Protein 1
Amino acid sequence: MLRMLQKEYGFDIITNDIETNEMWMEKYGISIPVVEIDGELIQEGIIDLFTLEEQIQKHLN
């Protein structure tokens, strides 16, 4: 889903393995996947395309 939107909007995707950082494990452990834009939590757990695209558009404008 993110790759599809990346092709359309041209943003970078940064993937982090939460198992490599104890703080991330505590913060995100049961919430993955997590999508943040510029440090702002957009969605976690179940990601829906409509909300994700809406937030990407908001942050790119």
Note: The chain has a mean pLDDT of 93.
Protein 2
Amino acid sequence: MSKTKPSYYQNNGKDLFARFEDGLMTPEENRGFYKGNVFKYMTRYMGKGGLGDLDKGMVYLNRLEQYEQKLDLEQYEQKSDEQKGIPQSNSVKRAYLVYLEDFNDVEFIEIYPSYEDAESAIDGMVKPKTGTYYIGQVILSKQVIDYVRSNAKN
């Protein structure tokens, strides 16, 4: 574990952030938690923790951004395909890309048919030494999905 995320924040394989986001706190409480910690670490770094506090502040800022993206995706998922502007065609599919982002490098991992499948896949993956796994939603033709899958495994 890193200095900004010590192992004692783990409980049954879930970190503190995941437990908060999985219902321990409301979305408003989660936002306040993240924003309050960003503010705390960013305002005190000059007088107390130095660069370590900047690192901690960035952890909370990045987590807030991920949380907001997750909430946006959940709200988007509740809309019908028609509300989302998705063509009603059997040849067009919604897919979820799992990718690993490490600074400016992005590595495609796999395409999944549902957000839940992509999330489960990430849960089963070995945590990278650096970088973070992300899920992105795309609308693709079946031919493109098949092509990407076949080329990703080569």
Note: Strands lie at 10-11, 14-15, 92-102, 105-112, 132-141.
